[in-house]
Structure prediction request, 547 residues.
Amino acid sequence: MTFLQLILRDIQTSIPKLVFVACVGGISNAAILATINAAAQAADDIDGSLVRTFAFFLVFLFLFIKAQLYVTTTIIAEIEAIIHRLRIRLLENIRHSELLVIERLGRARFVAAISGDAVVLTQAGTALGFSAQAPILIVFVGIYIAYLSLVAFVLSVVIIGAAVTMFYIRSQRLTAQKAVAAEQERQLFDRLADFLDGFKEVRLNADRSADLFDDAVDVSRQATNSKIMNQSETFRSALWSQSYLYLLLGAVVFVTPQFSKTLGSASLTEVTTALLYVIGACFGLVQSIPVLLNANAAAGRMDELDTALHAAAASSEADTPPALQRFDKIEMRNIRFHYVEKSSDTGFQIGPIDFTLRSGEIVFITGGNGSGKSTFLKVLAGLYPPDSGDITIDGMPVNDETRNLYRSLMSAIFFDYHLFHRLYGLPEQDPDEVGRLLAMFGLADKTGLSHGEFSTLDLSGGQRRRLALIVSLLEKRPIILLDEWTAEQDPGFRRKFYDELLPEMKRAGATIVVITHDDRYLDELHLPARRIRMDEGRIVDEREISG
Prediction:
């Protein structure tokens, strides 16, 4: 989709009205030129023609200013409104998409669309406003030139037509080059994310740091070379176009008098003045074309992302169902799931798995790294739909129509969890309950909650996980899923989790599934639970913990 197609598809202002006002602006601009030429010829007249001409000049100037303001401000406002609707549509589709789709598309594409591509469209607003009026100005000034000299008009059409054709052919090639440069910049963003998100790992391994840096330098060099080629080609096209326009001016001055014996010096001056108008408008168009080409590429990327997300969101349940408050039993039968990493040929899989979760029980999942524990937890949570097998809740199949209803049972803290500043989706909380939980988790003097927002999230890793668990408890959902929650807790609070917090959550009626490596604490556990061990994506052992 091009930038213009995007505008025409989503514009809400009357297009006929916009075109009419743009025509008024073009006509009034040409009329200003005509009145100036007429005034120059009538400068020595002692009758009232000069005064009348000046009056017409003021009228046309007023119409030109009003038309320019209306067209430019309307287009800018429409573009900003379209960008806003695009952003909202992207966010809407993101929240209704599935985790696999988001992981496959990658964070860089979303950041580029919401920030970078949107900025490009904003910058193109003014250029589009000018580009919409410049052709109209050129047409009406062209009519004026034809009135003055048919030969000059024909020369203008031939030379400008050749310039436009040449620039269009070059622009087609530039569009492909810009797409390559944009993709390389997204790759560079991925390398920057590696530096920032993996900073600890980078600082700990000098070889990794050097290799990542060399890779980032190589990607940056490729992006730089692509942009240099792109900008150079753009400048070369603009230079040739400007040369054609200067050729036009020279042809009219030197050639036209040879074919039009009736064209006097006064008429030649009028034609030359009119052509300067045309050349000024053409120069403006030439300068705006690179901006509009960038906007075309940005609009295409945003539309492509929007289409991909919309297709994924359309296949899922968009409406928010009423949350389930309770359940008796979740059954997973012959579940298999396989996923291939986007950036490599490696993948991971789990299954076949048979698993039953009953209301009110505590289940611990253990196993080595890469055994499939976290993937299994995401399948259990309904974030990864299984490739085969069945999940039922109290006999109801979990599928595309019921998955959101099933997920309403879950509150989860995954290993790569995100902690929000606000309690989104939660009504106003009882301050006493919040204070009790903060005190229980040792955070009363670290942060607080006011008007649904935490006073600070500047906490240690373990404290942030405690705060995330407080949020899960405030959600009061029947099932709590915890992936290595104790990994960053100190020994004292890790002991408190097993001896105090788990019994407290169980008394509150929660069903708890915990991924853990704390074998010693499980051996000393004082409450009934179930322990399963996974290896190579399968459950290889299951036993009861009597407590």
